[in-house]
Write a structure and sequence with these properties.
There is one protein chain. The chain has 637 residues and is an alpha+beta fold. It is built from 19 helices and 22 strands. The protein is elongated, with a radius of gyration of 37 Å. The termini are far apart.
């Protein structure tokens, strides 16, 4: 045919400028787009060959070739797929956003085609990414079933030409005349890197061939090397698309290390498919170790996203809730809504459904691991190892994911008054072990486990056979507002408000005993309250003390001393809240102080208050004064 020059349609100059300079965030994306187009062309040829076997009579070995010519500064991507004739070249390449792939699928659907192939292209702009790195692009194509080949060429400035071309085999070749600043894409290592990053799981082998550079006449090759058999740059088989039973554990481990650059093995591998309204495949991993940036809010985290085996990007946060950010892995779906550049997800119902399915699966697997705690073998230890590293992050979900809060609560573990050091119990374990007359779940907030175990506030609870959970993680108290009850049982802080233990009969008897003691100790209690009026809100007899003489108790909705100290360490202005000093009516020290008066009583009261502060881990107001009083007491006969 005679060479014809055409003007691009749809204000091509402006649109091409938009594609080249604004649509893609990275120039290197051009290779991903061209390889995706080549893959689609082969898919189309294979699919058409099912009903028109004459189109594939040459019994081709499907493959994609990348040829680099450093002398000519050209890079060519070639396939042996369906090919295009002159009309299709003009229609598909002469009009921006005219997708041949999309039109092919639409035509098949109109004919009632079933089991349509998974094709990558959707928007018809990927081809033009070539102009980001090239100042001229030449396409030579020969359509299967036709004899003639045609050539399309453009410099991307507003026009293109279509003429007869020369190509023996069916398929398409896209040749890029690279700009000087992009000659790095002629190096095999760079092309291999990009294929591994973006197109590793395209289903057809991708081969690289570098044409030999011309040598000076005075240089001779002294050695002749035997050509090596070409090896594909890509893996081709996506691990997540293989049946789970066909994947070996070492293959999962190798892929995890490739994905995360972690030298260790994952604690658990989650390989599953989502079916129904939205179809996707996912391969997820729970690591053994937390990354150094896991608590840095500015760091992007998420899953790697593939669409029809083509890598779209890392850290897609929309597919995973923040409290599961420790999860690594990939999601691959044909249903995901991407923007035109295929670099960003568009928020819609499809994404939410995939996110919900991924979240549910991870929580289910964690629940299964938790149920295996204590069993023989490595499975019995997995959850404790996981929780030691990521438990604090998992807790965030109670506050941020209301729909899954109850499931997350079942996954939490805590130390308690009745468990040995290093042992943790779940809320279900706690509830099962509750005495018959215990109605509430008791807990205590403390900065250190050692402080919690020796806290005066837990004494009566322990004496009555009630366990007390220890909230020693700063996030625990922050979550209390979202964690008011579990399985219909209220969570009660033993260091706040009024608490009573034992049966109703025991509580009644204890109240009568305290009322009697309060009347007897009223002058003493009034004297203590008067002396400490600037420090405490009230002084009363305690229902929670057994062995200690005193303790401090906060109002039910007040911050704990540990939380107050943490806020002050962060330079936050925390108003001073007066607490209640509780004393043990049956303690010998209280009986002895009852008989004191004057300065002796004042010194004893100051020591008593200081003791209550020290017992909970709080500083005394005047350490020097407290030390002198303590020294004088120790020297006293």
């Amino acid at each position: 045919m005679e060479k014809k020059n055409h003007l691009f349609k749809a204000e091509i100059k402006e649109i091409l400028d938009l594609v080249v300079n604004s649509l893609y965030s990275k120039k290197e994306i051009f290779l991903r787009e061209l390889l995706s187009n080549a893959s689609d062309a082969i898919d189309r040829a294979k699919y058409l060959g099912l009903t028109q076997p004459e189109l594939v009579a040459d019994n081709p070995t499907w493959q994609i070739d990348i040829v680099a010519d450093k002398d000519a500064k050209t890079l060519m991507v070639s396939d042996n797929g369906a090919g295009m004739n002159a009309d299709e070249l003009e229609k598909n390449l002469g009009v921006i956003a005219s997708s041949g792939t999309k039109a092919f699928r639409a035509a098949l659907k109109e004919k009632g085609g079933a089991n349509l192939p998974e094709l990558i292209g959707q928007f018809g702009v990927g081809f033009y990414a070539a102009f980001m790195v090239a100042d001229k692009v030449r396409v030579v194509s020969k359509k299967r079933g036709e004899d003639a080949a045609y050539q399309w060429e453009s410099d991307g400035t507003g026009s293109y030409s279509v003429e007869d071309g020369a190509r023996d085999a069916c398929g398409t070749s896209v040749m890029l005349h690279l700009r000087p600043e992009f000659e790095e894409y002629l190096d095999e290592w760079r092309i291999s890197e990009l294929v591994k990053s973006y197109s590793d799981f395209i289903a057809y082998p991708i081969y690289f061939k570098g044409l030999p550079e011309k040598k000076d006449d005075d240089k001779k090759d002294d050695e002749k090397k035997e050509p090596e058999a070409p090896k594909p740059l890509n893996t081709m088989v996506a691990l997540w698309k293989r049946p789970k039973k066909d994947v070996k554990p070492e293959e999962y481990t190798e892929f995890y290390r490739h994905l995360t650059h972690d030298y260790d093995e994952p604690i658990e591998t989650i390989h599953f498919s989502g079916e129904g309204q939205v179809e996707f495949k996912a391969l997820l991993f729970l690591p053994k170790r937390a990354g150094m940036d896991i608590y840095m809010p500015q760091t992007k985290r998420g899953l790697s996203l593939y669409v029809r085996n083509v890598f779209i990007g890392n850290d897609f946060e929309m597919l995973l809730p923040e409290y599961l950010r420790f999860t690594k892995g990939v999601v691959d779906s044909s249903d995901l809504p991407l923007n035109v550049s295929r670099e960003m997800l568009q928020d819609d119902a499809v994404i939410r459904k995939i996110k919900n399915a991924v979240t549910s699966k991870i929580l289910s697997v964690l629940g299964e691991l938790k149920d295996k705690r204590g069993k023989e073998g490595d499975d019995g230890k997995k959850y404790d190892k996981f929780y030691a590293v990521f438990g604090r992050i998992l807790k965030e979900g109670i506050h941020t994911d209301y729909s899954n809060a109850e499931r997350i609560k079942k996954l939490l573990l805590y130390p308690s008054a009745q468990t040995a050091d290093g042992k943790l119990i779940s809320l279900d374990d706690y509830v099962k072990a509750m005495p018959a007359d215990q109605k509430d779940i008791y807990y205590l907030c403390a900065e250190r486990l050692a402080d919690a175990r020796t806290s005066p506030q837990i004494e009566q609870a322990v004496r009555h056979g009630c366990d007390v959970l220890f909230f020693t993680d700063p996030v625990d108290e922050w979550l209390v507002d979202s964690f008011r009850e579990y399985e219909g049982k209220k969570l009660v802080d033993v260091a706040k408000g009024d608490v009573q233990f034992g049966s109703e009969k025991e509580q009644k008897e204890e109240k009568e005993s305290l009322d009697k003691a309060a009347a007897d100790l009223k002058p003493f209690l009034d004297a203590v309250k008067e002396q400490l009026k600037d420090e405490v809100a009230d002084v009363r007899l305690s229902t929670r003390l057994a062995d200690s003489p005193c303790c401090l108790v906060a109002a039910e909705n007040a911050l704990s001393p540990a939380m107050e100290r943490m806020f002050r360490a962060m330079n936050k202005d925390v108003p001073h809240e007066k607490r209640t000093l509780e004393v043990n009516a049956s303690h010998p020290l209280v009986a002895k102080m009852k008989g004191l008066s004057g300065d002796a009583l004042k010194d004893a009261v100051e020591l008593l208050y200081g003791q209550a502060l020290v017992a909970e881990g709080s500083p005394v107001p005047d350490p020097g004064r407290f030390a002198k009083l303590l020294t004088a007491l120790m020297l006293k006969d």
